[in-house]
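Title: Comparing notes on inverse folding

I've been comparing how different people in this forum approach sequence design from structure. To keep things fair, I'm posting one structure and asking everyone to reply with a full sequence. Here's the target:
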């Protein structure tokens, strides 16, 4: 049975913690307390585990050794997750913990017939963790004003964190239950095939069958691995993070093969979406071996089809490209895709336009490409590259010595040729 896609940090399930300006002393105390939690996690977790396993409504967990062990692992992951966030950003918002240890217990609960009431165990654990946290803070300061500020902020932080995690787990449980009862994947594949083939099925009919708003704007993606033994969780995690990055927390996901997922993300028609590959890659963080091809943005059933076809085009280009590229968007590679319809002609074009620059080091090519993309603005390009303006000028001078013709005589051609080298490695034989 295919495992379901889980979204990262659904905001509608997060109780917002009011933003406030923390004093530097409060930040210092929270960081110190979080470091104590990380150091003392095994001991602290004994109290949390005891509280969660004795909570009302969780006998089905406590009596099951495997589930009890899974809950202990989830408790550990949850406590460490919150503490680690507060070491990095004391008092900052902490998104739900959707680590595998946490998601797996939701799946196991459903398979043992437990319902969402079992998630009350986390609230019992929250009370135990809060008592331990107060004890830690009281060892760090006795100043009433400092205590008031730190405890006020962290009380809201812990409560919001636990509630959002419970909400995400409840949603996961519902999805797992749907998968078990209805075998949604089979129905999704059938309905998606009808839409992609242009069959006479209305948007309303398809939306009902898919549980997905087909009339909205869409961005499709292909998430895959070249390894047939790839961990499905790695694929699902990449798809979930992509969906969250694009603004949607409940994407449509179809298992298209042993190591391939097709994903559609519904986006509001008035919502801008950042499709820069670098920004998306930073947020998706695909595991080693997992690659992501993102399609164009389209509206309605035709946009659903077109975006998927564009994602497949992007995937084909990525397959031909150097293995260093884990993520690409159709928006970024459309020109390259068109220019590589004739691969031999593309190689000849690169050789003729770039000359020896085609074989130069990546740093030099990136510098020239950034300079051209920034409209030949040296200051803007240097700022993006994090180098001094004079350093960039020296690189551009060096590039001119490698190009058959000076850069300022044919900047557009050089920009296209550099994109070809970047995405396909196209060079003369």
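Reply #1:
Here's my take.
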């Amino acid at each position: 049975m295919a495992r379901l896609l889980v979204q990262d940090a659904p905001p509608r399930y997060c109780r917002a913690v009011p933003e406030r300006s923390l004093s530097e002393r409060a930040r210092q105390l929270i960081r110190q307390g979080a470091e104590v939690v990380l150091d003392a996690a095994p001991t602290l977790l004994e109290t949390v585990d005891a509280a969660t396993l004795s909570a009302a409504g969780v006998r089905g967990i406590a009596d099951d050794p495997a589930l009890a062990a899974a809950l202990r692992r989830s408790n550990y992951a949850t406590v460490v997750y919150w503490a680690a966030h507060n070491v990095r950003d004391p008092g900052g918002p902490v998104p739900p913990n959707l680590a595998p240890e946490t998601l797996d217990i939701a799946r196991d609960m459903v398979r043992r017939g437990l319902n969402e009431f079992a998630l009350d165990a986390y609230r019992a654990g929250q009370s135990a963790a809060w008592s331990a946290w107060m004890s830690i803070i009281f060892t760090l300061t006795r100043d009433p004003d400092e205590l008031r500020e730190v405890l006020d902020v962290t009380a809201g932080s812990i409560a919001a964190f636990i509630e959002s995690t419970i909400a995400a787990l409840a949603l996961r449980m519902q999805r797992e239950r749907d998968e078990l009862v209805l075998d949604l994947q089979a129905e999704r594949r059938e309905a998606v095939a009808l839409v992609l083939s242009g069959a006479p099925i209305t948007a309303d009919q398809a939306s009902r069958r898919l549980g997905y708003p087909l009339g909205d704007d869409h961005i499709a993606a292909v998430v895959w691995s070249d390894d047939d033994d790839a961990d499905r969780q790695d694929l699902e995690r990449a798809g979930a993070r992509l969906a969250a990055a694009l603004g949607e927390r409940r994407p449509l996901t179809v298992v298209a093969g042993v190591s391939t997922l097709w994903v559609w993300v519904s986006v509001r028609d008035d919502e801008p979406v950042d499709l820069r590959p670098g920004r998306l890659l930073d947020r998706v963080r695909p595991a080693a071996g997992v690659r992501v091809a993102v399609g164009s943005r389209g509206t309605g059933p035709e946009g659903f089809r077109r975006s998927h076809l564009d994602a497949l085009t992007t995937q084909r280009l990525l397959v031909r490209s150097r293995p260093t590229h884990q993520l690409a968007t159709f928006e970024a590679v459309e020109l390259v895709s068109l220019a590589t319809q004739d691969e031999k002609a593309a190689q000849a074009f690169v050789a003729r336009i770039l000359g020896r620059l085609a074989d130069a080091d990546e740093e030099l090519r990136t510098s020239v490409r950034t300079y051209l993309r920034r409209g030949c603005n040296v200051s803007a390009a240097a700022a993006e590259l994090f180098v001094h303006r004079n350093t960039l000028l020296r690189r551009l001078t060096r590039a001119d010595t490698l190009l058959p013709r000076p850069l300022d005589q044919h900047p557009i051609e050089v920009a296209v040729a550099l994109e070809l080298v970047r995405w396909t490695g196209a060079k003369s034989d």
